[in-house]
Amino acid sequence: MDLGHKPGLGAPCLKCKEKCAGFELHFWRKICRNCKCGQEDHDILLSNDEDQKVGRLFEHTEYTNIITKLKSEGMPMFKHNVMAMTNPCTAEKKFFNTGSYEWAPPVQRQELARNYMAKEKLSLSGSWATQYLKKQLSKQLPAHDQDPSKCHELSPNEVREMEQFIKKYKNEALGVGAMKHLSEVNDQGDKVQNPARVRNTTSALSSKEKSTEPKKTQYSCYCCKQPIKEGDTAIYAERAGYNKLWHPSCFICSTCGELLVHMIYFWKNGKLYCGRHYCDSEKPRCAGCDELIFSKEYTQAENQNWHLKHFSCFDCDKILAGKIYVMVNDKPVCKPCYMKNHAVKCQECQSVIDPELQRVTYNNFSWHASSECFLCSCCRKCLFGQKFMPVNGLVFCSMECKKMMS
């Protein structure tokens, strides 16, 4: 499938700080053709894409009815159900500051949502956190992990296998965290075996009568093991069971350590994952196109997995099987492209240095590792295999030579 291209979007790239001639999506890599950065790094509004992505993720799952109920009750769930938050001013409580958040937890009570938003990396619309949320959503829940039509050239068998994989994780791992005050979790816990209990403490009993004081249950965070106090905000994950609770700041992916965007989690073997890292634990991911690999044949190189056709030059897209390549910023580049676009020049002869030849590098300066190029800048003594003194791109064999050139 050709993912198409979007000409004329001269959006600045927030990663490389350059303005592209026009954002153009590479036909199979998930990057801009012009600056080689991801789509999420450009200042392009894709709000509908985000709504559709999250909505599609929960299609045909047990959570469909829950989400419909949340929305019908006016409880904000995902972006563009933008939540207006009011905060009383400290000076005069009759006045309120009002702001809208890009996203807020799916709770009816503003107090819970406000407490969460104040502590986490999610802030008012238009702030740096808006971009953070957008990038994390793209990273944690890639559209091409959810929909075969977003992938490039899948065979009919691969489409069927991917559809089965998606159905499996929706039935077995996918969930949305729920946020409550600990007292509210207690109320629910009475029905489902008191959640996150560490121990019960009671007042001392006399030898003749039992204490009439109610039992107190202590709770700890499943992640950090620190206490969760009565009245604190806690998150629980239905897949994990009600006996596990998290601090809001501890409800994170066990692989990347990032907050789970929209509190969407995947539960596996006693751990929380974001969508990306759950899928990575189940299937190999192509380092070229970023898609999961469902074909039986693929290659491994540089400690990464690749579709056979996607182990190609990052500059010109020519397949690298059986050819010499050089890794540039963790991306494979063929030798001709390396020599043209990336090779360093020798400080002595000013010609580019072949990647197959030895070289001497110090700071940002390089030389051919030969008696013809790596020489004292004063007396022309060969320094290959010898001690040397570098000074602003020049090299000297001794202090005397350095003084003579100063």
UniProtKB/TrEMBL annotation:
<dbReference type="InterPro" id="IPR034958">
    <property type="entry name" value="LIM1_Testin"/>
</dbReference>
<feature type="domain" description="PET">
    <location>
        <begin position="83"/>
        <end position="186"/>
    </location>
</feature>
<keyword id="KW-0963">Cytoplasm</keyword>
<dbReference type="InterPro" id="IPR034959">
    <property type="entry name" value="LIM2_Testin"/>
</dbReference>
<dbReference type="GO" id="GO:0005737">
    <property type="term" value="C:cytoplasm"/>
</dbReference>
<keyword id="KW-0440">LIM domain</keyword>
<comment type="similarity">
    <text>Belongs to the prickle / espinas / testin family.</text>
</comment>
<dbReference type="InterPro" id="IPR001781">
    <property type="entry name" value="Znf_LIM"/>
</dbReference>
<keyword id="KW-0677">Repeat</keyword>
<protein>
    <recommendedName>
        <fullName>Testin</fullName>
    </recommendedName>
</protein>
<keyword id="KW-0965">Cell junction</keyword>
<keyword id="KW-0479">Metal-binding</keyword>
<dbReference type="InterPro" id="IPR033724">
    <property type="entry name" value="PET_testin"/>
</dbReference>
<dbReference type="Pfam" id="PF00412">
    <property type="entry name" value="LIM"/>
</dbReference>
<feature type="region of interest" description="Disordered">
    <location>
        <begin position="188"/>
        <end position="211"/>
    </location>
</feature>
<dbReference type="Pfam" id="PF06297">
    <property type="entry name" value="PET"/>
</dbReference>
<dbReference type="InterPro" id="IPR010442">
    <property type="entry name" value="PET_domain"/>
</dbReference>
<feature type="domain" description="LIM zinc-binding">
    <location>
        <begin position="284"/>
        <end position="344"/>
    </location>
</feature>
<dbReference type="GO" id="GO:0005925">
    <property type="term" value="C:focal adhesion"/>
</dbReference>
<feature type="domain" description="LIM zinc-binding">
    <location>
        <begin position="219"/>
        <end position="282"/>
    </location>
</feature>
<dbReference type="GO" id="GO:0008270">
    <property type="term" value="F:zinc ion binding"/>
</dbReference>
<comment type="subunit">
    <text>Interacts via LIM domain 1 with ZYX. Interacts (via LIM domain 3) with ENAH and VASP. Interacts with ALKBH4, talin, actin, alpha-actinin, GRIP1 and PXN. Interacts (via LIM domain 2) with ACTL7A (via N-terminus). Heterodimer with ACTL7A; the heterodimer interacts with ENAH to form a heterotrimer.</text>
</comment>
<dbReference type="InterPro" id="IPR047120">
    <property type="entry name" value="Pk/Esn/Tes"/>
</dbReference>
<keyword id="KW-0862">Zinc</keyword>
